[in-house]
Amino acid sequence: MLLEIEKANKRFGGIQAVRDCSFGVEKGSITGLIGPNGAGKTTLFNLVTGFHPLDSGRVYFKGEDITELPPNEIFHKGLFRTFQIVRGYEDMTVLESLLIMPTQQLGENFWNIWTKGSKIEEQEKKFTKKAIEVLEFFEMADRKEELARNLPGGEKKLLDLGRMMMADPELVLLDEPGAGVPPSLQQKVNNYIKRISDDKNVTFFVVEHDMNVIMNLCDPIIVVVEGTNLTSGSPEEIKSNQEVIEAYLGEEERV
Amino acid sequence: MLSYIASYLVMASIYGIIALALNFQWGFSGLMNFGIGASYMLGAYSAALLSSAPTAEHLGGFGVPFPLDLVGAAIIPGFIAFLIGFPALKLKGGPFAIATLAIHEIIYLIVHNEMWLTNGVWGIRDISRPLYSQMPQQYDFFYLLIAGGMLIGFYFFFQKAVRSPWGRVIRGIKVDEDMALMSGKYAWSYKMQSFVLGSAIAGIAGGLFVHYTGFVSPTNFTPLMATFIVWLMVMVGGSGNNRGVLVGTFFVWGVWTGSEFLTDFFPGSMETRAGFMRMFLMGIILLIVIITRPQGIFGKEKIIPKYLRSE
Ligand SMILES: Nc1ncnc2c1ncn2[C@@H]1O[C@H](COP(=O)(O)OP(=O)(O)OP(=O)(O)O)[C@@H](O)[C@H]1O
Ligand SMILES: [Mg+2]
Questions:
Q1: N or C end of chain B: smaller count of CB under 10 Å?
Q2: Tell me: the pLDDT tens digits for A190-229?
Q3: CB-closest option in B161, B165, B310 to A108
Q4: Residues of chain A with pLDDT under 50
Q5: Inter-chain residue contact A71 with B308, CB threshold 8 Å
Q6: For residue A118, is it within any domain?
Q7: What is the ipTM of this complex?
Q8: CATH at residue A220
Q9: Is the CB of A39 under 6 A from ligand 1?
Q10: A204 part of a folded domain
Q11: Cβ separation of B184 and A72 shorter than 8 Å?
Q12: Is residue A37 in contact with ligand 1, taking CB distance under 6 Å?
């Protein structure tokens, strides 16, 4: 298992958002995480990436206990996430919001700016080249000087994926990559995720509301209800699981 | 008249340095520092005490000459900002602003009341004015070379810093701190660096100020003259835009000094009120900017990476 969550618990005031939740994400997979609104999916992501402390339980990444680490250190272990509400470096140009990502940048140290100019310039050229390649991969090269805030919703999601590619993580948590994406672009976003998973050997852990999206993108799928994992399995198994249908699919059909 | 313009330019240059420092903290790093005036004051007193001759009136006799004492004028407010940063940087936005405002007040009161240290309201006299005896007539012009030169130097310094990868991280943290954390950046450290750097440079401006006037007292650092007017300069010019902030500084300082002439037209009985009218005028400018152009005259600058075209 690349990521393992063991008996995680998290309470916000009177709400038990995550309850004795345990599951794992297999290396190389595109694992789905589904559950009704308020089931605790985003909270689970926040627990894994160090944004909220756990009340109890453990999180392991590559066998290492990362429960107590802050987000920036978890990132350096090779774990990246996107946020449910599209957010990014809104006031920056598309290119800069990519250039911020690489680790080990000499120029991120204040003194180096004044003493290691030529080495920093070399690095900047290298990263700029990589950023342009990433943008070309997403067919967004013409957007490089655009402010991130001016991109349409779908392209903001692609920029999220682009930032991920600048960092070369091993595991990526995507919180609703389909939200705010027009249906016409949806399939495209999925194809990108699949391609990155195959070509770059990146493992994905995806929260998604749209059943069609999750069924054709993810395998296996983990179902959480009221903060705890109900079951997991292949899309076929999930589709035919009576409990899931009651807890989740049924609800959606009623709506 | 000419020397009047020179003295206007000297003071505008000094304020320009503080405004660039505040713009770095607020416009680029998102730190709403209402204590910038305290750093300016600490720098001013540091330079005054470090360079002063031994006296019974206040601490002194360290014998650090200009311009070496400017290093102290940077280090002391920088170090104090470092200490304040530990508790204050746990806060964000408005609460951070209020904390820095409170600290500003504390520092002001210490300088105001600790006679042994600063001579209190009587101030510090006879601060060295470099090369004054050689050119008492043209001193404003000479000092303009120093202050203006420093302003230009700091302008290029900040321009380079905010465009560097280091500045890019700082700007990223301002836009979205969670995102920056998830990009592996240790946000707290960068905010501390920005807070310390800006405070140190505002301190240098304080040092420049005392060597120009030769005298310093707490009245030079009222909230209006040390903090509010600097915020106004940044907001008028456009926070996040160094060039805009320079224009904002020269404009605001021009209105402030210019309005002094206007008050001369008022009859004697109105004179004290005229001072308040000037403050009122500053408030009006702030309102006009906020209502008509909240992003300032120039607005935020879009930064395009330098190496875009090199393959
Ligand atoms: N920071 C917080 N403070 C207080 N309550 C919270 C916080 N974050 C989440 N909650 C609560 O925890 C529960 C789980 O929320 P969470 O956002 O994890 O659900 P979700 O499965 O991601 O839902 P959605 O599908 O709507 O995104 C909800 O009841 C929510 O109100
Ligand atoms: Mg959610």
A1: N
A2: 999 999 999 988 999 999 887 878 888 998 999 999 999 8
A3: B165
A4: 254-255
A5: no
A6: no
A7: 0.91
A8: 3.40.50.300
A9: yes
A10: yes
A11: yes
A12: yes
